[in-house]
Amino acid sequence: MTQTIQIQLKSQIVDGEFYSITHNGGKNGYIFDNIDGKYKYSEIKELLIKQIPNNSQLEIYLYNDLNDEELYSLLPFPFDTISFVKVDNSLYFVFSSYVDGNYDENWHKKFTWTYEAFFTMLEQQINQEDIHFGNYIDSYYIDYYVKFVDNQSHDIHTGLIKAASTLKELIQQTIQGLQGLQLFIDAMRFWRMNSNNPNENEWHHFFIENNWVLSQCFSIPAILFQNKAYVGGKDISYKNGGVLDILYKSKMLENLALIEIKTPLTPLIGKEYRDNVFSISIELSGAINQLLHYKDNFLKEYYSIKGKSSESFQLYNPKCILLIGNTEQLNDRQKRSFELFRTELRSIEIITYDEIFEKIGLLRELVSL
Fold it and tell me: How many whole angstroms separate alpha carbon 265 and alpha carbon 200?
């Protein structure tokens, strides 16, 4: 037999049955909702928490009443439902977001990432004992919710403002986290679409626009210092000067690093010299000598170049990095020859495209944990 619960709202008695009472979790509690638009937030905002029956829930579905502007301003996207749940004399503010089959289209009008990524990141931002994240999965929809425990507020409105403010901060942190994650996603997408791109200029442009990618070549903090840098070598006619692709600088000691960029299609290995022994390609040996040539000129003309530069930098036996090729183009025997060769180099570190983007992929996984 259905019982009747009465609560006082603005000096009028409201019968719970008027709001479609349903049992709440088998606890002999009840749900008051506005599924038929029976009331708005303005009618319950001043309700004292002590007036709310224990083990009951007052729920407002915002998407069924878009004219409730006050509640609309308090509920941050993507949450569209607010429940005030009183259990064991504690009040809970529960913000819900219902995701159905048509949700993706509306979601992407606001964000470029999926709602699954958003809610996963949102959960990671919650580290307080009085805030809980969860979801309920049905065959037609998913209900994501964030629940705030409140044992201090005097009335519904005071508690809601406090909870909504905290939720907005969590959402902002989530968006910032996803924007950072988006950098990794975009970089990996570019690699998948351009792994066979032979245009060196396009790769150079990508690494300048995403200079944080090349920073992964270093074990110490390093920042982009100069694009297309002059490194000396001009003759008496003031011609034939060397122009390096990119200069990086140690953030702490200001020591420079020289980076030369080829393409992922640049061959790494030449012909087989003996059984299971391969020579390096002409392109790789030429790139190595080119980079050594730049380093030699730079060291010889260091004081002249530094004296004309407005930027502070040092040149303590500068690190040289050659970004070239793709190990996926090699078989196991060729990989062995390539690895034996590059590990014996003293002045130049050779990094392949698939290696640096593999590192970006691993960093993306760490960021998204």
Answer: 10
Give me the DSSP letters along 159-177: HHHHHHHHHHHHHHHHHHH
Instruction: Give dist(CA 4, CA 16) in Å, integer.
Output: 6
Q: Which two tokens stand for residue 31?
A: 């749900």
pLDDT at 79: 86
Cis amide linkage into residue 78, ω under 30° from 0: yes
For the stretch 81-90, pLDDT in tens is: 888 888 877 8
Can you tell me the distance from the alpha carbon of 103 to that of 73, in angstroms, rounded to the nearest whole number?
A: 21
User: Residue length, the chain?
Assistant: 369
d(CA 75, CA 85): 17
Residue type, 145: Y
Confidence class for position 106, pLDDT limits 50, 70, 90: low
Segment 238-252 shows an average pLDDT of 63
pLDDT tens digits, residue range 116-169?
778 888 888 888 888 999 888 776 778 888 999 988 888 888 999 999 999 999
Q: Is 89 exposed, middle or buried (0-12, 13-18, 19+ CB in 10 A)?
A: exposed
The CA distance from 321 to 258, in Å, is 6
- At residue 61, the pLDDT reads 65
SS3 344: coil
CB 242 within 8 A of CB 231: yes
CA distance linking residue 185 with residue 124, whole number of Å: 19
State how far the Cα of 278 lies from the Cα of 268, in Å rounded to an integer.
10
By DSSP bridging, strand 314-323 and strand 348-351 are parallel
Q: CA nearest 134: which of 142, 78, 57, 111? A: 142
| Most confidently modeled range among 15-19, 108-112, 360-364 | 360-364
For residues 321 and 300, give the distance between their C-alpha atoms in angstroms, rounded to a whole number: 19
Q: How far apart (Å, rounded) are the C-alpha atoms in residues 332 and 58?
A: 66
What tokens appear for 26 in the block? 């088998």
Pairwise CA distance, residues 138 & 140, whole Å: 5
Write down the mean pLDDT value for the chain: 75
What is the signed CA dihedral for 87, 89, 90, 92, rounded to 10 degrees? Answer: 40
pLDDT attached to residue 71: 76
